[in-house]
């Protein structure tokens, strides 16, 4: 399993290469390979969402260290795993090598992803 990663310079370089590639310019095989390599090296954030809750602004302003926010999801429900902000997988929490982990159980297909951006 790959660890969660953040956007970085690799991502910016890969996006720049993709945008350059869209400029209807013929690319040599070497340039195409470099673009592909840049894209494959780009880092994507992975988020395993435990659940969600809604609070009023007043409740938000009253939050203090030690407060508990009840989520709308049962502890037995699977987690939504997002790539960026897009739901892509269903998973279950666990641990691996003494660290928290999430196991992918299923892929979210097409319209099920419910892009929430």
Summarize the structure in words.
The protein is 27% helix and 25% strand. With 117 residues, it is an alpha+beta fold. The radius of gyration is 19 Å and the shape is elongated. The chain starts with 8 loop residues before the first helix and ends in a 10-residue tail after the last strand. Mean pLDDT is 81; it is low at 1-8.
* Percentage of residues assigned to helices: 25-40%
- Globally, the shape reads elongated
State the helix count: 3
Q: Give me the Rg, rounded.
A: 19 Å
Could you say which structural class the secondary elements and strand pairing correspond to? alpha+beta
Percent of sequence in beta strands: 15-25%
Quaternary state, please?
single chain
Report the span from N to C terminus.
Answer: 26 Å
Unreliable stretches, pLDDT < 50, 5 or more residues? Answer: 1-8
**Major beta sheet, specifics?**
4 strands, antiparallel
* Secondary-structure element order, N to C: HHEHEEE
Strand segment count: 4
Strand order of the largest sheet: 1-2-3-4
Mean pLDDT: 81
Task: List the SSEs and their pairings.
Elements: H1 9-21, H2 29-41, E1 46-49, H3 57-62, E2 79-83, E3 86-96, E4 99-107
Antiparallel strand pairs: 1-2, 2-3, 3-4
Helix pairs in contact: 1-2
Summarize the structure.
The chain is of the alpha+beta class. It is 27% helix and 25% strand.
What brief labels describe this structure?
117 residues; alpha+beta; elongated; disordered N terminus
């Amino acid at each position: 399993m790959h660890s969660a990663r953040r956007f970085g310079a690799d991502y910016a370089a890969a996006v720049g290469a993709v945008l350059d590639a869209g400029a209807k310019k013929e690319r040599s095989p070497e340039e195409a390979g470099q673009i592909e390599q840049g894209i494959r090296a780009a880092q994507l954030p992975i988020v395993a969402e435990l659940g969600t809750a809604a609070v009023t602004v007043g409740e938000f302003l009253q939050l203090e260290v030690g407060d508990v926010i009840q989520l709308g999801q049962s502890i037995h429900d699977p987690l939504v795993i997002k790539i960026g902000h897009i739901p892509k997988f269903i998973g279950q929490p666990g641990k691996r090598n003494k660290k928290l982990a999430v196991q992918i159980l299923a892929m979210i297909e097409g319209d099920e992803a419910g892009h929430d951006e």
